[in-house]
């Protein structure tokens, strides 16, 4: 009876954890460059007296879905999207190098080229800055040019966005939604990575699939709760029988 409670509670616990993951994916269904997190259950056999027929449920995080999201045309000069595999290098809040697929960029009041979430875009020599009152153009190889409004034909290259393409198996995502290499060593720039200007990459979350998954997880949680109530009912009836005896 008590063993049933433990096994059911382990299932309910990790079902709630997966529900939180699916909810987070759904909340970022419109976040540019977002990569859905993947979770799965695994069975953990209970080793002890008796037959090995009981199993606990354990949560197994298999990683992230690195499939590309849909490209959306914006026509905005500071919007870029990775054309194929690859990542944009940015400076995280702790000063370390991190990677994102969110190409919605802006120039702040100090001239730094940043993501919409406030991370500096890194170039070959650190963060990229743009002179004031200049129009910005970004080429397919990541070169950032400043163009004077009164002389559109004169372009001054102020930097080149660092584009990388590390092994996806070596990437991890932190709470700031940025990816990093597990080794902590910055990835090498890859000249084979190209960008498309005037476009952004959307989230790769499949909303319909996520909703169906959420419904299935809700039903699994209800099943675990019914098992716990059954264990409680059995315990009450057993106590009544023992008191009669």
3D architecture notes:
With 245 residues, the protein is an alpha+beta fold. The protein contains two helices and 18 strands. Strand 9 and strand 10 (126-127) form a beta hairpin. Helix 1 (2-27) runs antiparallel to helix 2. The radius of gyration is 26 Å and the shape is elongated.
N-to-C span: 20 Å
Helix % is 25-40%
Basic shape: elongated
Number of strands: 18
The pLDDT mean sits at 87
Number of helices: 2
Q: Give a quick account of the main beta sheet: strands, pairing sense, barrel closure.
A: 5 strands, antiparallel
Task: Write the element-wise H/E pattern from the N-terminal end onward.
Answer: HEEEEEEEEEEEEEEEEEEH
Q: Which ranges are low-confidence, i.e. pLDDT below 50, for 5 or more consecutive residues?
A: none
Percent of residues in beta strands = 25-35%
How large, in whole angstroms, is the Cα Rg?
26 Å
- What class do helices, strands and sheet pairing give? alpha+beta
Secondary structure layout plus pairing:
Layout: H1 2-27, E1 37-45, E2 55-64, E3 71-73, E4 80-82, E5 87-91, E6 97-100, E7 105-107, E8 113-115, E9 120-123, E10 126-127, E11 135-138, E12 143-148, E13 151-160, E14 163-164, E15 171-173, E16 179-181, E17 195-197, E18 199-201, H2 207-244
Antiparallel strand pairs: 1-2, 3-18, 4-17, 5-6, 5-9, 5-14, 7-8, 9-10, 11-12, 12-13, 15-16
Helix pairs in contact: 1-2
């Amino acid at each position: 009876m008590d063993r049933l409670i433990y096994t059911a509670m382990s299932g309910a616990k990790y079902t709630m954890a997966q529900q939180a993951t699916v909810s987070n994916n759904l909340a970022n269904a419109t976040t540019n460059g977002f990569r859905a997190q993947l979770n799965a259950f695994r069975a953990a056999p209970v080793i002890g007296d008796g037959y090995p027929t009981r199993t606990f449920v354990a949560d197994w995080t298999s990683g992230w879905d690195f499939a590309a999201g849909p490209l959306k045309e914006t026509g905005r000069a500071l919007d870029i999207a990775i054309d194929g595999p690859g990542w944009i290098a940015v400076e995280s809040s702790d000063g370390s190098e991190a990677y994102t697929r969110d190409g919605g960029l802006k120039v702040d009041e100090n001239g730094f080229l940043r993501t919409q979430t406030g991370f500096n875009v890194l170039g070959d020599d650190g963060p990229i800055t743009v002179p004031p009152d200049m129009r910005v153009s970004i080429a397919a190889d990541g070169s950032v040019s400043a163009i004077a409004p009164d002389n559109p034909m004169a372009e001054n290259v102020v930097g080149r966005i660092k584009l990388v393409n590390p092994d996806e198996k070596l990437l991890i995502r932190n709470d700031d939604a940025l990816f990093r290499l597990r080794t902590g060593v910055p990835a090498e720039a890859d000249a084979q990575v190209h960008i498309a200007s005037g476009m952004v990459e959307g989230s790769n979350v499949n909303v319909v699939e996520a909703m169906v998954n959420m419904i299935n997880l809700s039903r699994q949680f209800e099943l675990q709760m019914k098992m716990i109530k059954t264990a409680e009912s059995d315990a009450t009836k057993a106590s009544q029988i023992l008191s009669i005896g």
